[in-house]
Amino acid sequence: MNAKVLKIAIVVHGRFDAFDLARELIKEGQDVRLFTNYPKWAVRHFGISAENIRSFWFHGILARTAQFLHDNMRLPYPEAWLNVMFGRWAAKNIINEPWDVVHTWSGVSEEVLLALRGSVAAVILLRGSSHIKTQVRLLQEEKTRTGEQIEKPSKWMIAREVREYDLSDYIRILSSFACLSFITEGVAKEKLLLIPSGVPVGDFKPAYQIIEERYKRILSGRPLKVLYVGALSFRKGLQDLKTIIDEPKTGKFQFRFVGTILKESIHKHLKSEGNIEYVVKQPQYKLPKQYAWADLFIFPTIEDGYAAVMAQAQASGLPIITTTNCSGPDIITEGKTGWVLPIRAPGAFIDKLLWCDSHRNELAEMVKNIYENHKPKDWNDVAKNFIDICADLKEKHK
Predict the structure, then answer these.
(1) What is the pLDDT of residues 233-267, one digit of tens each?
(2) pLDDT (tens digit per residue) in 135-175
(3) Considering Cα of 72, then 73, then 76, then 77, what sign does the dihedral take?
(4) Long-range contacts for 64-72 (Cβ within 8 Å, ≥24 apart)?
(5) Domain segments of the chain as ranges
(6) CATH class assigned to 201-373
(7) How far is CA 338 from CA 12, 217, 236, 276, 362, in A?
(8) Is there a common fold for 7-198+378-397 and 201-373?
(9) CATH label, 7-198+378-397, candidates 3.40.50.11190, 3.40.50.2300, 3.40.50.2000, 3.30.200.20
(10) 221: exposed, middle or buried (C-beta count within 10 Å: 0-12, 13-18, 19+)?
(11) How far apart are CA 88 and CA 272, in angstroms?
């Protein structure tokens, strides 16, 4: 049992990384309750016992039904109604018990934050992306650049999240890029807690045989295999992905894109033809097979709070080419584990791919270096860091 036992409530509408964090906190001896709209039977699959779960499963059914109708029948998603419903349920249940720390997800937390003001050591709001105003600005710029309709947070959600930022004691953000966005929007640095997510290293670290095969394949001169994992959307850099693969000089590479095609970008998706292969979205347990296929990982995102797929790719021993607007600057050592480039700079990505093709020895050594020397943060590391921070906040509160 950890000497710093805290009573922690985690409030999340869905899963995100909350289940991984809750599981590891429990393993570390913490007294955790997970408030979610997943049914208990589903949460137990993630290694969390029923006694640690408070489920509003009916809300989960409503939310998934509304999302299906929105995606397939273009009906408006009733976010105001659903988010407030979940927030009220969570607030009603949370105030029945004393807590040291409440860790709650943005967008569904206003009711919880109002109910708990001053009653716990720390209420930590998790914002998984950049500040919502920064996110909206970047998406609006992308809409102007591409001439496409891009789904953005509603005015209702923007106003709600900004109120949540003000009401919370602290805001947990997942990358230095997200941290800077909050400071730029006027949030005090002292209010921000940079606690990145983790990766189940054991699930993604490949057998050495896969690294040897990648090493030999790179040196053989065969076409380099370039992988992208994630939603194919303009937010994730679809416009630049198209430019990269349409460049004649990249015809010497093999590209594989794994993920969902968003409605907004359906007519621009990357079809399976020539040197391009498209694979539908895969469950997490099948992703290691995709990473094993590749020699490089590419991620030209316009805006991301963290991007779990990059942590997975790095744990899989892949060099990464990505942008400044994600966790890339935090997890990549320039020129040793990958490269961080400006957003909306497909030419820079093309140049870097061509460099990799003409510097096979350096690329192969980079693969071995990542595998042998890089130590990504496991979820257990994240949980221990979270406990230390929360214990300090509790002490300050005293």
Answers:
(1) 999 999 999 999 999 999 999 999 999 887 777 66
(2) 999 999 999 999 988 989 999 999 999 999 999 999 999 99
(3) negative
(4) 71/263
(5) 7-198+378-397, 201-373
(6) alpha beta
(7) 33, 18, 18, 22, 11
(8) yes
(9) 3.40.50.2000
(10) exposed
(11) 46
What share of the chain has pLDDT > 70, as a percent? 97
Res. 1 pLDDT band, cuts 50 70 90: very low
Region 267-290: mean pLDDT is 84
Read off the pLDDT of each residue in 16-20 and give the average, rounded to a whole number. 94
User: 118 near 134, Cβ under 8 Å?
Assistant: no
Query: Is the dihedral angle over the CA atoms 387, 172, 394, 32 positive or is it negative?
Result: negative
Q: Decide if pLDDT at 189 tops 80.
A: yes
Task: Provide the CA 14 distance to its chain's centre, in angstroms.
Answer: 14
Q: What is the value of pTM for the model shown?
A: 0.93
Spell out where 18-115 has E strands.
31-36, 53-55, 101-105
- Model confidence at 2: pLDDT above 60: no
The Cα-based distances of 249 to 106, 252, 279, 360, 386 in angstroms read 43, 7, 23, 17, 46
The CA distance from 233 to 150, in Å, is 9
| Alpha-carbon dihedral sign for residues 167, 172, 174, 177 | positive
